[in-house]
Amino acid sequence: MFAQPLFYLLFCIIGCCFAAVPEVGQGPCQNVYFTFNVTSTVRDIPLAPDLSPPGAVEAYQKILLQRYATAPNITRKNSYTVAGVYCSSKLRESAAQLQVLAHGSSYTKEYWDRGAWGNLPLANSWVDYATKQGYSTLAIDRLCNGASSHPDPQLDCQLTTSTEVLHTLMSLLRNGKASPVIPVPGTLIYVGHSAGSIAGANLVQAYPRDIDTLILTRYPSGPIAGIGAAAYYAGINQTVPNPAPSTQGYRPAYLTDPSRFSGFDQGYIAGTKATARRLLYAGNFDPTLPGLDFISRGSSPLGEASYTGVLSFSAYRGPVIVLTGDLDGAAWVDRDVMNRTRARFPSASNFDWIRVPDTGHDVNSIKQLRERFVMFTRS
């Protein structure tokens, strides 16, 4: 089934709609940290050249993607710390429903709660709305991002390691061993945005029982998005346009903002052009947001060039919900393309698509977010 109204399906999860739950206020939030050992298979990538000259990062990224496709595998063992913010609901009868929130590239866990700059109204907070409706949330900094560990950006930040880190965290949550402040969830829901969605899809293919529901926002992403674009243009008898050259102006992060990224390996990069941040926004949003977003942007590890992963997720048997802004850079995602995406989850118990009107890449930024939450979850 496909649905157009914004967020109706997102909070009608496992047959329990938000409409049945009164708003009672967000529960307490606290910082949490998880440290564990992980073993993963990664591509053995040699050290990067000097990336400090202008243009060096983007030139190396092209080479790096090819290297990830052909380099030999090695086993990588390491200890990592994942940082998060856990917010509990005051609804005791619903406290066992936990949403794990995973941000996209160059963002942090604050994406889910008014952005890293923190001045969006509560109406734009996914965390605030979810906890007021009976869900607890755990917004995490994905490995190599935010306050989580920043290991080797080429070897330790590949998708395979991210999958193992997420699997370990989900296992600890399932067993009640993640943190004394987090109760054992009866329902475990993964919510990803962009690169976080790619990570979630690959998680459920490798470990299909780790979660109960998969929510993918700003999806398709990565190579599946490229395949979808090709299918869309073929359907209208047009050639796929050549990709526009990068407008980010990537440099090693420590050169772009020494006050925040001092000591980072050169393989952690950040954009230098504020205008590029504007491309993430569309529709009815506060025009001051792209500038604030740029100032508070996070770094990205070169290892995220490996965020291709598998293209079919047949092992997962739970429900899937996909959310796409209709003004996103992937606005060509139409019903036919989404049907092809649906076919990549052939065993899913249910697959729903929400095409969000008047919205770009960052779906939490639109002015009417809360009104649309309420409208479509109480209809």
Characterization of the model:
The protein contains eleven helices and 14 strands. By secondary structure, the protein is α/β, with parallel strands linked by helices. The strands form three sheets. The chain has a nine-stranded mixed sheet. A three-stranded antiparallel sheet has the order 10-11-12. Helix 3 crosses helix 4 (195-206) and helix 5 (222-235) packs across helix 10 (335-343). It is globular, with a radius of gyration of 20 Å. The two termini are 17 Å apart. The model is unreliable at 1-9, 13-25 and 370-379 (pLDDT under 50).
User: What does the radius of gyration come to?
Assistant: 20 Å
Instruction: Work out the helicity level.
Output: 25-40%
How many DSSP-defined strands?
14
Dominant shape? globular
Question: Which class do the helix and strand fractions yield?
Answer: alpha/beta
Number of helices: 11
Strand content: 15-25%
Name the poorly predicted regions.
1-9, 13-25, 370-379
Q: Main beta sheet, described?
A: 9 strands, mixed
Give the topology, please.
Layout: E1 2-3, E2 12-13, E3 16-17, E4 26-43, H1 56-70, E5 73-89, E6 97-102, H2 126-132, E7 136-140, H3 159-174, E8 187-193, H4 195-206, E9 213-217, H5 222-235, E10 251-252, H6 253-256, H7 258-261, E11 268-270, H8 274-277, H9 289-295, E12 300-301, E13 319-325, H10 335-343, E14 350-356, H11 369-377
Parallel strand pairs: 1-14, 6-7, 6-8, 8-9, 9-13, 13-14
Antiparallel strand pairs: 2-3, 4-5, 5-7, 10-11, 11-12
Helix pairs in contact: 3-4, 5-10
